[in-house]
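S1.2 Input.
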Amino acid sequence: MKNTKTLLRVVVLGSAALMLQACGSSPSKSSGSEEFQFTDSGTYSQDSGVAADDRISHSIGNPAIVAIWQRAEEARLTGDTEGAIAQLERAIRIDPTDPVIWSRMAELRLDQGNHIAAENVAMKSNQLNNGEDTVLAYRNWLIIGKARKAEGNLKGAEEAQRQAQAFKP
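S1.3 Output.
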């Protein structure tokens, strides 16, 4: 009985030591993970003034989000806005800090006719972006402007246009 208690203590203490060591170490990428790259061609190219070379390039290190993004794009390109939104909602649950995912969600909400949600989601993307990616900020302000205009807020739409011009590539 005494040997069993001693063995149990060793196992528990050893497990605790391993957990503490893991907590103190910095996270590392597994050797199997890769940086994935996708380019957002933007659906506002013709009517917004965003030139074809003003595409948003964005690296994703999480293969699950890459797969979800690809499914969302497939759905979007086939006209399945609801399916694309559902996929992006999954991606946001995994990484709620990715401004590009939020921006694509804003675009889809605008396509859906949900103008208030489109504006709010584009603002969230801008908040997360913090002005780092000027093409993304420009695109988000264009979405905000379109949403405000569709809601009849012409003054707000003009303000969004001014903001967009500040980030114009």
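S1.4 Remarks. The beta strands are 36-40, 56-60.
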